[in-house]
Design a protein that fits this description.
Rossmann fold, ChlI/MoxR_AAA_lid, 5-stranded parallel beta sheet, Helicase, Ruva Protein, domain 3, MoxR family ATPase, two-stranded antiparallel ribbon, AAA+_ATPase, 2 domains, P-loop_NTPase
Length: 334
């Protein structure tokens, strides 16, 4: 028997989206009281969380990536856990481990002690300083929201998001993230230096006797409801066509652009199209709009695609960069 989806009442949907937009405006204001000079970063991280995904923050140390994650946990009402990734970190330090306990009558049994991954907002700080084995321990948790240990599966709390920070790969003591794990991040967000005005405001706000503290603006239950609402927002055929054209055009096997065929070793899979579909909806609501547009697809193309594509050897030798290829893809959308 085929299930038929219930029709969406446009009036109710519009009212719900408008109410959510009002609440999200309060969220952005609360974050802006603590985080200075990173409006695009804040927007893209909020888009990721609203879309129900994980985000990878890339930038040199000292740009406020950790502060942003701590602020979001308070503003969004999420239980936070933080793991500092180091070369000697083991998978059990993240997931948890089984210990042998002796009970009454001398009976012995294993008991699972949950690791820090059992939270709502996991901050994986400097994730690429841990070994690939430890990095891959997060794969199942990020995709399936559960942890398998000793033949038993333990569900993670809902919502569950990983906000990972990554140092530039050129720095000492870093390991490249496996492609399979990169693909599980909805967006890769580049954190750059703030402009002079923002840095001035930051200095005045953070070095005085009193420092601004984050305040709650949403609960975890409200966030879950918002994520469910995001998935109900209709997407027009024009936007859907733009997503498919962008993602399929970024693959060397199906892309028509010379920049793609000549310079890419491999391109994004279907998960990239899913990420764009959800992220464009979230961006529209965050901007106070009722439906996504092609402009949303263009704006989110780079953070969605750049960690799901790889240049070939000849492209690196010729000095071609991924932003150049993605720029050509965006231009093809008109």
């Amino acid at each position: 028997m085929v299930e038929v989806a219930e029709p969406i009442d446009p009036t109710i949907l519009v009212n719900e989206v408008e109410a959510l937009g009002t609440r999200l405006a309060r969220v952005k204001a609360a974050v802006g009281e603590v985080i200075f000079g990173q409006p695009e970063v804040v927007e893209q991280v909020l888009i990721t969380i609203l879309a129900g995904g994980h985000v990878l923050l890339v930038g040199v140390p000292g740009l406020g990536k950790t502060k942003l994650v701590e602020t979001l946990s308070t503003v969004l009402g999420l239980a936070e856990s933080r793991v500092q990734f180091t070369p000697d970190l083991m998978p059990a330090d993240i997931l948890g481990s089984e210990v042998l306990e002796e009970g009454e009558g001398g009976r012995r049994a294993f008991r699972f002690i949950q690791g820090p991954v059992f939270c709502q907002l996991l901050m994986a700080d400097e994730i690429n300083r841990a070994s690939p084995r430890t990095q891959s321990a997060l794969l199942q948790a990020m995709q399936e929201r559960k942890v398998a240990m000793g033949g038993t599966t333990y569900p993670l709390p809902a919502p569950f998001h990983v906000l990972a920070t990554q140092n530039p790969i050129e720095q000492e003591g870093t390991y490249p993230l496996p492609e399979a794990q990169l693909d599980r991040f909805l967006l890769e967000v580049e954190v750059s230096y703030p402009d002079e005005a923002a840095e001035r405001a930051m200095l005045l706000a953070t070095t005085g006797a009193a420092e601004a503290r984050a305040r709650p603006a949403l609960t975890s239950a409200e966030l879950l409801a918002a994520q469910a609402l995001i998935r109900r927002i209709p997407v027009g055929e024009q936007v859907l066509d733009a997503i498919l054209k962008l993602v399929r055009g970024a693959r060397p096997e199906t892309g028509a652009l010379p920049a793609v065929k000549q310079h890419l070793a491999w391109g994004p899979g279907p998960r990239a199209a899913q990420a764009l579909m959800l992220a464009t909806r979230a961006r529209a609501v965050l901007d106070g709009r009722l439906a996504p547009s092609v402009e949303d697809v263009i704006a989110l193309a780079e953070p969605v695609l750049r960690h799901r594509m790889a240049l070939n050897f000849s492209a690196r030798a010729d000095g071609v960069r991924l932003p150049d290829v993605i720029g050509a893809l965006k231009a093809s959308l008109g």
